[in-house]
Amino acid sequence: MIHSSGKLLVIHGSRDPRTHQGIQDLAQQVRTRLESQCSSSHIVATATLELGKYTLSEQIQQLGDRLLRQNIAHLQIIPLFLLPGMHVMEDIPAQVQEAHTLLAEDLHLETCPYLGSHPQLQKRLAEQINPTDREIWIIMAHGSRRAGGNQPVETLAHQLGILDAYWSVMPSLDWRISQLMDLGYRRIGVLPYFLFPGYITDAIATTLAEKQAAYPQFKYSLGSPLNQNPHLVQMVLDLTVSSPVSTLI
What we know:
Elements: E1 6-11, H1 17-37, E2 44-48, H2 56-69, E3 74-79, H3 86-102, E4 108-111, H4 121-126, E5 136-141, H5 151-160, E6 163-166, H6 173-182, E7 187-192, H7 199-214, E8 219-222, H8 232-238, E9 247-248
Helix pairs in contact: 1-8, 2-3
Keywords: Lyase, Metal-binding
Protein name: Sirohydrochlorin chelatase
């Protein structure tokens, strides 16, 4: 059977088994959605940029060889990253180019837009924010030490009408909550800007629980990572539609 294209979902990689399970579940959901739209089977694979047994270029090559054996001449590479950092702008394109040099010329590699660029992402995040439930909300991201690296999160927070906080740089979540409590806020919601649960989302939950234990008047809500969003599968598929920012090799 001939398919139009294969799809490769690319994540950063993690030692947390929940991340591995999460990307496998997402791939299966994408596959199921595609098969519900077309009776034929679809190849939807996963890969990691780091912390894997093989480099991303090797993983692309392995999948590419499999596709060619099945007469599939097009592979769409979908970066499931939320920010346009070095991984999206430099590392993944370099790995794709390296894979291209190792594959036959008749396999086309297309790098789709990254997940964080989806035009509906802000709307989907806003659906978790209930202004009647909490007085104020914070979006919590990993954070970057590169100049301008946190600007996309700051912009997103501004668009959502909430505040930003980060795991690796200031303002930290603990600092932000203390600041808000000093200003008189007692009901605070936190929206984790992560694709899957992991040790950072665990740490966010611990920070909030400890804060509440220390200050009984403090009440909080904790949102879910994006893998819990019912629209995520469609957002991933949207990225595979022809776009000016997609690149074809």
